Amino acid sequence: MTQRQFRSDYSGAFGFLAYSVLGFVFLLAIGVFIYGRILATEKIVKDKAILAAQSQIDPLVVEGFVRLRDRLTSGQTLLESHVAFSGLFSTLEKIQPTTVRFTSLHISFESTNVPRMEGTGVAKSFNALAAASEAFATDGRIRNAIFSKITVSDEDNSVSFVLSATIDPRLIAFTP
Amino acid sequence: MNSRVLPILAFFLAIAILFAYVRPTWNGPIAKTKASIESSEKTLTAAREYTEKQNQLASARNAIDPANLDRLEIFLPDSVNNVGLILDINALAARSGLSLSNIDIVNAPAAGSTVDAAGGGIGPVANANPVSSVDLSLSAVGTYPALQAFLKGLEKSARLLDVREILVKGSNTGVYTYQMTVRLYWLR
Questions:
Q1: Which pLDDT score, from 0 to 100, does residue B140 have?
Q2: Can you give the residue range of the structural domain that contains A17?
Q3: Dihedrals φ, ψ of A121, to 5°?
Q4: Residue B30: which of A26, A36, A82 has the nearest Cβ?
């Protein structure tokens, strides 16, 4: 009698547990289904929002901004290295003695982008040439000035020469 | 009998629903959709940031005087337009009292080539590559003041021009011959 009552109680408890688990799983399945639907709807809304955002992006506007940026930054860089040889000629006019003149002058850039000048000229006398050499050394912006092939004329004592020098980049820098 | 079988069936049905629907759906479509939504949110955030940045840039650009923007476009144009430039240089030479005898392209760049920093180019810009350049050789005859006026005109021209090389050959008449190399730039 006691054993049968125990079995009956056991079956009842197991039944209660099994139906509870089924109910819980059933509710869970409904929840998962509804959650899936909510996510799918949310995804559609997001996709539409992305399409709307994409349609507002104009590639031409973007390109316009990029080119303006490039123009500003490149222009700034180019302007900083803008060359003004007129400054060099003005300086030569000021520091070179009037008794010395160039017969040819070649101003260019070395492969390292350092400006340099090479020229041939005539000085009235050796002293005039020395004064020119001294003037370049004192000024300091025409550097490494080397006078070579110095020849004194027998006729009028004038001195012909070849000059080779590097130029301080600040001397040919453009100033607005 | 039923009191024993039905709870067992209910238990197995619960397990079947759990493993046949709930778990695969959670780990499959729902996980994918969640990841996709997360990615979409990142995209939308980026789009909002882009819009903000675009508005900022538009404000900054609108703050620049349109005349200055036009000058900037002349300073560094979109194309080489060397023919128009040669006309301008010729006019400048005439105003300065210099007589141009020959104008030619020294180093025509290949399509898509950029400024060469090693060849006396423009350094930092060469890395960014938005600028191309070409050298023009000019031959001219004139007095020294005419050369000075011409050089100052080139240096201050609205379009950026760099004299890269100049060769002056003297004479006893006061009229010199000049050989110049002028570099011009444009935005690729």
A1: 93
A2: 12-78
A3: -160, 180
A4: A36
